[in-house]
Design a protein that fits this description.
about 280 residues; alpha/beta; Rossmann fold; 2 domains; five-stranded parallel sheet; four-stranded antiparallel sheet; about 35% helix; about 25% strand; globular
């Protein structure tokens, strides 16, 4: 059995995204960037993820680049997954090393079905201004990652832009302070299905919060999404996706408990919640 999960705002949270904390709650830093801790989990969530990893194959799935993924030290010190999917499905890491064959497969698929990145950039430059676009990055030679001022987005222009690039085989997703422009062929779901076949797994539970996770969740046998996410805003009810009751950082605890419960059910056992810390 595989548990394939998005990271940011699904399993791990920045201070801005974690939401209200319970009294006396102590979060655990799990990512260091420029000598500052920028991502966190609750102690309970780390304990639950450790249980998950001991029970099944845990595969982190993220739009982060390899370098950004490698900053998350909880995956080196505490939870050590054998596989990870980064760059929105563009890279598969096997024991920390990139699978070159998969990278070549993705590059060929993107070239066949999506317009060149330079064409998308030309359309983007027509609507982007310094007033609301702070930084632009072409990540891993695969997709655009753009830091924005969200409340200054020219929404009609962005909606028109989204429609234009969709015709060119590209998708747009807004996550917090970032916009991602991603070739449609660059898919978390495709990478996960590749690993499912490679590992000979019969069942996948997936979790994710954004539209970039939609392919991952739809390709899985069971799907869970945090209530606070982009997916919930677009699909308040979904025939395939179960939403958590809790938003914010506690959604990670809830969805991990659901994963353990479903794993126990499939194995004919009863999952017993255990309080405690790692």
């Amino acid at each position: 059995m595989i548990f394939a999960s998005d990271l940011d705002q699904t399993l791990i949270y920045s201070e801005a995204s974690m939401g209200p904390l319970k009294p006396q709650e102590q979060t655990v830093p799990i990512e260091l960037y420029e000598e500052r801790y920028i991502s966190f989990m609750t102690k309970r969530a780390i304990q639950l993820l450790t249980q998950v990893t001991a029970s099944m194959q845990f595969i982190p799935v993220t739009t982060r680049t390899v370098v950004q993924y490698e900053r998350i030290f909880v995956f080196k010190d505490t939870v050590r997954p054998n596989y990870a999917i980064t760059s929105n499905g563009g890279t598969i890491l096997v024991n920390g090393q990139a699978d070159e064959h998969w990278k070549q497969t993705v590059t060929a698929a993107v070239a066949r079905s999506s317009a060149p990145a330079a064409d998308i950039k030309q359309h983007w430059d027509r609507i982007a201004t310094p007033e609301w676009v702070l930084t632009e990055k072409y990540a891993d030679d695969l997709f655009y990652s753009l830091v924005i001022v969200r409340d200054k987005i020219p929404q009609p222009e962005l909606d028109d832009f989204r429609a234009v690039i969709a015709e060119l085989g590209w998708n747009l997703s807004i996550q917090g302070r970032k916009i991602y422009l991603v070739p449609a062929a660059l898919s978390k779901g495709a990478a996960m299905l590749h690993l499912k076949e490679r590992l000979g797994a019969s069942h996948v539970i997936a979790a994710g919060d954004s539209l970039l996770d939609e392919s991952l969740l739809l390709a899985a046998d069971e799907a869970i999404a945090p209530r606070h996410g982009e997916l919930f805003k677009h699909y308040p009810k979904h025939p395939h996706i179960t939403y958590t009751q809790l938003p914010g950082i506690y959604a990670s605890e809830e969805l991990l408990e659901q994963v353990l419960e479903r794993h126990s059910y499939r194995n004919g056992t009863i999952y017993e919640k255990k309080e405690g810390v790692v």
